[in-house]
């Protein structure tokens, strides 16, 4: 458009008037930058925003996104230690990977799968609970008989039911409030998907048999208000047409009624980087790693934040009789803003790594969906084992016997990913934002020689009077709720509803989240 206008004006006015025209061009309608789209304004309202990805990094200098691994002490919180959790010879058995956790009414509630020996036809779902999330009890519920007694904690008797993924359905009547879906193996029949419902998470009845084609491992469902439908995440076998081999992926489906599912879409598939990380075994033709499952959940502490604990299965060495090695599973972290487009973070390094040789978590680790909040921490429960997934299912030789159990990993609140700066000062500017509230809080670690200052910019990227860098009080603390203060006026009421940007100036600091909030100043 600009070239057309210049040509027309040059012909009409002649060359000698061009200089005058160019001086006035900023005011001439035909050369207003109509072709340049205004940047989209992100409406953050008064909801917490976490730094999962580059959404809030419109421009940046000497900062980076960092994934944070949770702390683990190696303690086993739940292990097989009851007679009905043992094989007929009295040896403890492996807890099923497909287990889950919820925090409700002051209790941490765990549903876990349990067999009675390798390849046993008996696989059940059991229940444990805790007031502090560390010391668990296994209540004798008196529901299902084993070895002539109902004094056990079994809630779904099987005979072969592949674990659980319990969730609360906000659209269901009270009698069907709790639901779980799993692959079952009825005697003499093909495996199938069953969904059970319950009023309390203890007493279960068959609810539906959804038809979704092939399914396997842990199947995740939740209601998603942004699309007004249920979302279903399950493992799927993708076929490599060139090699006539199959490999594991994660797909998403949608439903209005939990029975009919549609809009199938793969959301986690081995890409070129996965295929090339190790030489592929000629025996399998599969990628060196694929995805045994994907524990997707909505992070309720923040706005539009979805995460996937991606269970990565490694099998790239030819182990002869044992099949393919190392035959281990660890956990990567993937993030999304819409529960559809996921991106792995942390350079694809493990979010939950395998434990050292000889420990119970040296071969398998499987993160349960839905971390629970305990104070200012997130507790991520996981199932682990020292038995690999090779053809002969080898046990870690340093352990001497099979070990498995449920453990706990601890992460800072909102602490999956942060924007970091080192000793070299860094800064970044957000895209245009619109907020509600009168104060700004950060989840930030700037202690020990660090600092963070925040300035507010107008639509032209100019500092707003009273809220510039020089007026900002440096933050040099570590807090999940740190107020941002300016010298003249910490109250942001006059800016609420306006389009602004934030520019963060950081040194030796990690920034996890921000939130504009409405605070009653009369109480302070």
TrEMBL record:
Xref: InterPro entries: Glyco_hydro_beta-prop_sf
UniProt protein name: Glycosyl hydrolase family 32 N-terminal domain-containing protein
Matching SUPFAM superfamilies: Arabinanase/levansucrase/invertase (SSF75005)
The species this protein was found in: Symmachiella macrocystis
């Amino acid at each position: 458009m600009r070239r057309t206008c210049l040509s027309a004006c040059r012909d009409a006015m002649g060359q000698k008037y061009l200089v005058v025209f160019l001086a006035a061009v900023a005011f001439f309608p035909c050369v207003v930058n109509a072709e340049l789209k205004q940047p989209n304004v992100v409406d953050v309202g008064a909801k917490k925003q976490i730094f999962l990805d580059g959404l809030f990094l419109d421009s940046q200098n000497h900062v980076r996104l960092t994934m944070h691994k949770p702390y683990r002490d190696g303690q086993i919180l739940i292990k097989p230690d009851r007679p009905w959790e043992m094989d007929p010879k009295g040896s403890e058995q492996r807890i099923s990977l497909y287990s889950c956790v919820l925090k409700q009414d002051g209790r941490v509630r765990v549903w876990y799968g349990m067999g009675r020996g390798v390849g046993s036809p008996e696989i059940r779902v059991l229940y444990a609970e805790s007031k502090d999330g560390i010391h668990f009890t296994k209540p004798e519920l008196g529901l299902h008989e084993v070895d002539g007694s109902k004094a056990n904690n079994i809630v779904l008797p099987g005979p072969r039911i592949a674990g659980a993924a319990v969730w609360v359905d906000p659209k269901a009547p009270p009698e069907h409030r709790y639901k779980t879906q799993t692959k079952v193996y009825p005697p003499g029949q093909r495996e199938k998907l069953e969904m059970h419902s319950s009023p309390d998470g203890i007493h279960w009845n068959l609810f539906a048999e959804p038809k979704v084609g092939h399914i396997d491992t842990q199947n995740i469902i939740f209601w998603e208000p942004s699309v007004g439908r249920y979302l279903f995440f399950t493992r799927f076998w993708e076929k490599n047409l060139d090699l006539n081999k199959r490999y594991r992926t994660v797909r998403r489906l949608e439903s209005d009624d939990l029975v009919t599912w549609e809009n199938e879409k793969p959301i986690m598939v081995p890409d070129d980087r996965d295929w090339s990380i190790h030489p592929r075994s000629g025996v399998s033709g599969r990628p060196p790693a694929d995805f045994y499952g994907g524990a997707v959940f909505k992070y309720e502490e923040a706005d539009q934040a979805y995460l996937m604990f991606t269970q990565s299965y490694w099998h790239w060495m030819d182990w002869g009789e044992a099949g393919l090695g190392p035959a281990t599973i660890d956990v990567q972290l993937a993030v999304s803003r819409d529960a559809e487009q996921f991106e792995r973070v942390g350079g694809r390094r493990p979010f939950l790594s395998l434990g050292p040789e000889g420990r119970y978590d040296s071969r398998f680790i499987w993160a349960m969906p839905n971390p629970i909040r305990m104070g200012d921490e997130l507790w991520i429960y996981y199932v682990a084992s020292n038995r690999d997934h090779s053809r002969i299912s080898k046990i870690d030789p340093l352990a001497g016997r099979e070990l498995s159990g449920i453990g706990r990993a601890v992460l800072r609140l909102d602490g999956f990913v942060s924007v970091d700066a080192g000793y070299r000062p860094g800064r970044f500017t957000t895209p245009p934002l619109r907020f509600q509230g009168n104060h700004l809080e950060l989840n930030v670690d700037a202690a020990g020689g660090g600092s963070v200052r925040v300035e507010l910019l107008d639509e032209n990227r100019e500092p707003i009077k009273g809220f510039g860098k020089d007026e900002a009080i440096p933050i040099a603390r570590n807090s999940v709720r740190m107020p941002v203060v300016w010298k003249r006026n910490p109250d942001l009421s006059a800016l609420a509803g306006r389009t602004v940007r934030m520019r963060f100036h950081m040194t030796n600091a990690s920034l996890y989240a921000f939130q504009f909030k409405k605070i009653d100043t009369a109480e302070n």
